[in-house]
Every structure is written in structure tokens, then in C-alpha cells.
């Protein structure tokens, strides 16, 4: 990148030019505003003087003392025709100029506005004011120029800020998408043509997104391949175990067979979860088998399935359902798996005799909220977001020494299922306890 394309140089040059332009225009404007001028008076100007002659008593000219008698707005100054030299120098010069040109004038002299002179009898009348100018880019309208300079400088600065912040906002949006697992950063294509630091950053971010996407795809493919490859020997091992049990009619090594069977079941469960997570990662919301059912009734069925575990730990179940039927259009097989996973975790880590709270409600924005809260030890604050990542073991952090038999895939499956339904999952500590909240759109179509 050449030095004149750098962002530093652009910002420096832009501000330097703006400041230089503002200073130059300020000097020019100051000189222009101070310039004296005389132009032919318009009909409106003449009518103003005649109206002042009829309505207002004149102020007699007394040399420089005249200025102290002037009031804000237009004043009417009079002097005898043969005593023009009694006028202050500014007015005398104005009157002489009008006589030379043979017409009534409108003009400025040392900051004073003047119209005239109009002769009536033996007197000359001149309208005098200290009032500001009123029109645009005319000698009478010069006050607008500083305003135009302000607008110009403000516009230039706004364009600079806009040109810098727009690509930065797009970068921010792209990075946020990547954090959510969406590596489509095509919105940055329009900034590839830039030849400054922002353009280089866009190239790096797009390269990083593509490399991360390939890495994740390779990881998922590796997990799928390994899982499939393990299925064949695992099946053969299960068959061999069955044959060994038949041969051991006396049950001499039945304990060893039981341990082998438990180990095989654990490996089989791990492989199944890995394959399920890989399968869900490739699905989108159009792949869901949606059915419209009452969410409160389905939740009640899932809680009944867990009654045995709840009773074994003597937990007090508190259920707060939405008033009335709450319909939802979800993939109920997947939703049952998500809720059941969270529910089983809550039961596992809840102390015996404690309270387990389950709530179902419709929020003000129309989305459905399902919360499950236990009174266990909770999760360290810095892990509340990471517990939903694959293979993240939360058991030791929540309850040291607990034997959950999990592999850190359950909550990852929950997150993916909820995301497929267009929802979010969040966890927060209650002190004591952990609350997991599932927020999903009802998914109902309204005609």
C-alpha cells in the first residue's frame, strides 16, 4: 500500500484541508463583510424612507454626536440642503455619492446601512440603521455566508466520518455473524476496492472467515468419519459380547461382561451424539418437521416422563404455565430432546429436597419463553456462554466430583435445536442455582 493511500494520510489531509478552507473563508468573509458599497435604491427602499418621513420625527444632524441619538432599527436623519457638511463623515460621503450619481442609493459605510437622501423642502432625509443584512449572497445579505461556511465544514466532516464508519460497521456486523457461526461475509465485498487500511482489514477478515469455515467443516467431517468408522467395530464388539454371554452359561465372568457392556453403551452414546450434532449442523429451518401443538400440554408430558427421577431426589416441582392454551408450530421431537436435556441436567445437579422450577409463558413480543431453574451450585460467570459449546464439560465446575456420564455435547445439541427454530438459549446464575431460558418464536402462520 502506497503512503498516499493510507488511512492516516487521508484523515490528516482531510482535516488539514477543512481547517485551511475554514480559515481562508473566514478571512475572506471578514474582509467582504467590512467592505463599503453603494447601489441604487429599490422602490421598496424609497417607500421605506418616505414612510419614515411621514411617521417619525427626524434626528437633526450634529456631526459625530448624531450616532449617540440613533436607536435600534431604522432612524430618520435630516440636514439642511446647504449644511451637508454637518453630517458625520460616513453620511456625508454617502450623500455626496448620491448627488454624483443623481439617484437615491442604498449602501453600507463602516457597518451602517443607509438609504437616501430624499429632499423635502430645504431638508435632506437619510434613513440610517445598524440592522443586519437579510438576503443571500447580495451586498445586503452577507450574514448568510458564515452560515454557509459552517454548513460546508460540517458536511465535509460528516462525509469523512461516514466514509470511515460505514465499512467499520459492516466489519462489525460480519464479525458478529462469525461469532454466531455464520461465515457468509459477502456484505464486505463492496469494501474490497478500497486501497487503505480498512480495505486491507476487509481482506484479512474475509480470509479469516473462509479459513475458519474450512477448519470447522474439516472438524465436522472428521468427527463424522471417525464416528462412522467406530460404528462397525462397535457393532462387532456388541455381537461378540452377546456370543460370550451365551457361552458363559455358569456366569463365571458375568461381571466383566457387564462392565464391557456399560463401556460399549457409553461409546455408542457418544458416537450417536456426535452424529446427531453433525446432522443438526447441516440442517436449516426448512428441514424441521413442524407440527402445531399446545406447548403447555407437551411440556406437561415431558415433565411426567421425568417424574421418577424427580421423586428419587425428593424434589419439589413448581410449574407455572401460561394462562390458557399456548400453541406453537415446532419440531416436537427435537424440542423434546432439548427440554429433556436441560431438565435432566437440572435434576442431576439439584440438591435432594430442593425446589425445581419450570415456567412457560408468552412474552410481550409474542415469543414463547421456557425456563428451567434448579438450586444447585450454578456455573462460574465466565462460563455461562461457553457451556453451550461442544465438548464443554460443565459438571466439574458445577459440582466437583459429580459423575454425570456426559461428554459435553448435550447443551450444544440444545443450542443448535433452539437456533434451528429461530430462538436463543441463555443461562444465568440465581445464587443458588442455575436458570436456563429458551426463547423461541411460536412459528404460527397468520393469514
UniProtKB/TrEMBL annotation:
The chain crosses the membrane at residues 7-28, 143-164. It is an enzyme of class 2 (transferase). It catalyses: ATP + protein L-histidine = ADP + protein N-phospho-L-histidine. It is a multi-pass membrane protein. One of its GO terms (molecular function) is phosphorelay sensor kinase activity. Its EC number is 2.7.13.3. InterPro entries: 2C_sensor_his_kinase (IPR050980), HAMP_dom (IPR003660), HATPase_C_sf (IPR036890), HATPase_dom (IPR003594), His_kinase_dom (IPR005467), HisK_dim/P_dom (IPR003661), HisK_dim/P_sf (IPR036097), Sig_transdc_His_kin-like_C (IPR004358). Residues 225-444 form the Histidine kinase domain. Pfam families: HAMP, HATPase_c, HisKA. CDD domains: HAMP, HisKA. Keywords: ATP-binding, Cell membrane, Kinase, Membrane, Nucleotide-binding, Phosphoprotein, Transferase, Transmembrane, Transmembrane helix. The keyword Aminoacyl-tRNA synthetase does not apply. It is found in: Cell membrane. PROSITE patterns: HAMP, HIS_KIN. GO terms for cellular component: plasma membrane. Residues 162-217 form the HAMP domain. This is histidine kinase.
Amino acid at each position: 500500500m502506497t503512503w498516499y493511500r493510507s488511512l492516516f494520510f487521508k484523515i490528516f489531509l482531510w482535516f488539514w484541508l477543512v481547517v485551511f478552507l475554514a480559515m481562508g473563508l473566514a478571512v475572506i468573509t471578514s474582509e467582504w463583510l467590512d467592505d463599503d458599497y453603494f447601489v441604487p435604491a429599490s422602490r421598496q427602499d424609497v417607500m421605506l424612507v418616505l414612510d419614515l418621513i411621514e411617521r417619525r420625527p427626524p434626528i437633526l444632524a450634529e456631526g459625530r454626536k448624531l450616532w449617540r441619538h440613533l436607536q435600534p432599527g431604522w432612524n430618520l436623519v435630516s440636514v439642511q440642503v446647504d449644511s451637508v457638511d454637518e453630517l458625520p463623515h460616513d453620511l456625508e460621503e454617502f450623500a455626496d455619492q448620491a448627488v454624483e450619481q443623481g439617484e437615491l442609493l442604498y449602501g453600507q459605510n463602516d457597518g451602517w446601512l443607509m438609504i437616501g437622501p430624499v429632499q423635502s423642502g430645504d431638508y435632506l432625509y437619510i434613513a440610517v440603521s445598524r440592522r443586519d443584512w437579510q438576503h443571500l449572497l447580495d451586498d445586503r445579505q452577507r450574514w448568510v455566508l458564515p452560515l454557509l461556511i459552517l454548513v460546508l465544514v460540517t458536511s465535509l466532516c460528516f462525509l469523512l466520518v461516514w466514509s470511515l464508519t460505514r465499512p467499520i460497521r459492516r466489519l462489525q456486523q460480519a464479525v458478529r455473524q462469525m461469532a454466531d457461526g455464520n461465515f457468509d461475509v459477502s456484505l464486505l465485498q463492496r469494501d474490497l476496492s478500497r486501497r487503505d487500511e480498512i480495505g486491507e482489514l476487509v481482506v484479512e477478515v474475509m480470509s479469516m472467515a473462509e479459513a475458519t469455515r474450512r477448519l470447522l467443516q474439516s472438524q465436522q467431517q472428521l468427527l463424522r468419519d471417525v464416528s462412522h468408522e467406530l460404528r462397525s467395530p462397535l457393532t462387532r464388539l456388541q455381537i461378540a459380547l452377546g456370543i460370550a454371554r451365551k457361552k458363559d452359561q455358569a456366569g463365571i465372568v458375568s461381571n466383566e461382561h457387564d462392565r464391557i457392556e456399560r463401556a460399549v453403551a457409553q461409546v455408542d452414546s457418544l458416537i450417536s451424539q456426535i452424529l446427531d450434532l453433525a446432522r443438526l449442523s447441516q440442517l436449516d429451518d426448512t428441514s424441521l418437521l413442524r407440527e402445531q401443538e399446545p406447548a403447555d400440554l407437551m411440556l406437561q408430558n415431558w415433565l411426567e416422563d421425568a417424574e421418577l427421577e424427580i421423586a428419587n431426589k425428593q424434589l419439589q416441582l413448581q410449574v407455572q404455565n401460561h394462562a390458557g392454551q399456548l400453541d406453537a408450530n415446532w419440531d416436537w421431537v427435537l424440542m423434546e430432546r432439548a427440554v429433556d436435556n436441560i431438565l435432566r441436567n437440572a435434576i442431576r445437579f439439584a440438591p435432594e429436597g430442593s425446589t425445581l422450577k419450570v415456567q412457560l409463558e408468552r412474552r410481550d413480543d409474542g415469543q414463547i419463553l421456557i425456563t428451567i431453574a434448579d438450586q444447585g451450585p450454578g456455573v462460574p460467570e465466565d462460563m455461562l456462554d461457553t457451556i453451550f459449546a461442544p465438548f464443554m464439560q460443565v459438571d466439574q465446575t458445577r459440582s466437583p466430583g459429580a459423575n454425570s456420564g456426559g461428554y459435553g455435547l448435550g447443551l450444544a445439541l440444545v443450542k443448535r435445536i433452539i437456533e434451528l427454530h429461530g430462538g436463543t438459549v441463555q443461562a444465568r446464575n440465581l445464587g443458588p442455582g442455575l436458570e436456563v431460558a429458551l426463547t423461541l418464536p411460536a412459528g404460527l402462520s397468520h393469514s
